[in-house]
Design brief:
By secondary structure, the protein is an alpha/beta fold. The protein has six helices and ten strands. α5 links the parallel β9 and β10. The chain starts with a helix and ends in a 7-residue tail after the last helix.
Amino acid sequence: MQRAVNVLKLACLCWLGGAVAPVAVAAPVETVLKDSEGKDAFLYTPSAEPEQGKTYWLAVGVHGANGKGKGAGGIAGWAEDKDVIVLGPSFENGYQAGDGVHEATLKALVAEVGKTWKLHPKFFLHGFSGGAQFAHRFAFRNPTLLIGVSAHSAGSWNAVDPKNAAAKKLPFVISCGEKDTGLSTKESPMGRFEWFNKFADEMKAAKYDVAAKTWPGVGHSQGKEVRAMSKELFDKVRAEPAAKK
């Protein structure tokens, strides 16, 4: 019986010259937009035009300090999923606070994208380093706009407000390399790894929905494990019916 099943599986494969033909995956289409401040924002879509009647999930990836939006903080490839588009804003230094003009710019960009691409009402926010600083702070200020937050190796973290009931409903994944011990600025009271652990403990104590990981032997870098952790949360939350409301 097992042999018959295996033969059936082989018969279903597409062969080319004795080898299994690879399945072609179209690369995301990159479009450069101008934000309200005149800076480049990079949009990654599964096709050049929206598919009629389709609603898309939006993921926003925020770059590190002195970076740009190209590549959307390392997650542009998520737009290979046919119902996902990815946005990479370009911010000036100071954006790490997650408020003011940069907060407003992101909201305006999302609204502008939504004029062409029909979006689900909430989006996913990812950031590494300075982008992680922006991501978790924007999330604390705007929890009802998001379906999930991914923040990794931030140079600083906000104190957790245990009374922020709306943010407690929002799932977070956070992480830091165990060798990422340096100070992000001369004024920082502690290194990245120490501050990450303090923040993770505060979130857990305040009963936030958070998964926190550390990476042995890793310094200040965004490896494949970080992106996999982030994508896993994104895939999970967009599969939940509540995310569509």
